[in-house]
Structures are given as C-alpha cells and as structure tokens.
Design brief:
This protein is mainly α. Helices cover 68% and strands 0% of the residues. The protein is built from ten helices and no strands. Helix 4 packs antiparallel against helix 5.
C-alpha cells in the first residue's frame, strides 16, 4: 500500500502500471487492506494523478462497479481538488444522473455542484440537471438540489455557452424550454 501511494505520488508516469490494482481495490475494498475511509482518503489524494482521475470517472460508467464503489468514487470526487476533475468525471456523473438510481442520485447531484472546473465542458451536465429538475418521478429534494446546481453553473457560463445550451434543449425538449 505504501509503495503504491509513493509511486503514484512521486512517479506519476508509473501510475498507469498500478491502475489494474487500483481498479480491483475499488471493486472489492477488502482486497486493499484499507478500511473504506482510508481507501477514500487515498484515492482523493491519488486523483491528482490524471490516470487515476480517469480511472475514477470510468468506474462510474463501468457495469461491473457496485453501487458501494460508485458511492465511494463520487464521495472522493466531492472531497478532491476540483482542478483534478477530468472529462471522464463529468461523463460519469451525467451517466449517474441519467440512470435516476435512487441510491446514487443525491450524491451525483452533489458531485455535479463540485465540478465547476472551467476546463470541463458542462453542457451535457447542465442539460441533464435541467431534465432532472422537471422530472416529476424524481423526489422533490433531488429536483431542488439539481436546480441549485444549475444556478451555480449557469452563473459561470459565458453568454454564448448559455445560449447554445438553451438552443440545444429547445430543439431536443421543446416542452421543457419555452421561448
């Protein structure tokens, strides 16, 4: 464990060699020898490594990932430095929101609030949050969280990005966005 942490922290270029081990730790935390809190802390620190950050995002869309693993990954994303966020995180969070999995929806919307990194393309996230906010099959609490996240992200968009997002939604969901 210490060697893995040292390699990823001091020799990030070697980190890709450890990705299969890290993946197995996420799929079965008992393999790692860490308790879940230690493992979450470790991955929060390791997420600064781009390869590890990508692994975390990919695990959210991996059909082999358990709900527990996805919940731990989303928690790590929330605790990590938002500059560590990569496009695969955005893709994973959008996929979780689209799934409407009641076990993960609250965490996914909270993570969405954390992904305010300007280097990420947030249009798909914003569209999905807008859909979620009006989905009456979803619990009101999650819908309100989605609205709060939307407001936070929309404030950071440039006018052109906001207009493009609304135009895209208008074409895709004419009932959702009225002129």
């Amino acid at each position: 464990r210490r060697k893995a942490r040292w390699i990823l922290g001091n020799r990030p270029n070697l980190g890709t060699a450890l990705l299969p081990v890290l993946r197995s730790w996420l799929l079965d935390s008992s393999e790692s020898g860490f308790d879940s809190t230690e493992l979450a802390d470790l991955f929060s620190k390791l997420s600064a490594n781009p390869s590890v950050a990508d692994l975390l995002g990919e695990m959210l869309t991996d059909g082999n990932s358990t709900t527990e693993a996805k919940r731990m990954i989303v928690g790590m994303m929330i605790r990590s430095d938002d500059q560590a966020a990569v496009e695969s995180w955005m893709t994973g969070i959008v996929a979780l929101i689209q799934s409407r999995d009641t076990h993960l929806l609250n965490e996914a919307t909270r993570a969405a609030a954390h992904l305010a990194n300007d280097k990420l393309d947030r249009r798909s996230l914003l569209k999905e949050l807008m859909r979620l906010s009006v989905d009456t099959s979803v619990h009101l609490k999650e819908r309100l969280v989605a609205i709060g996240v939307l407001v936070k992200h929309i404030e950071t968009l440039q006018n052109v990005q906001f207009t493009a997002m609304i135009d895209g939604l208008r074409l895709e969901q004419p009932v959702l966005v009225r002129s």
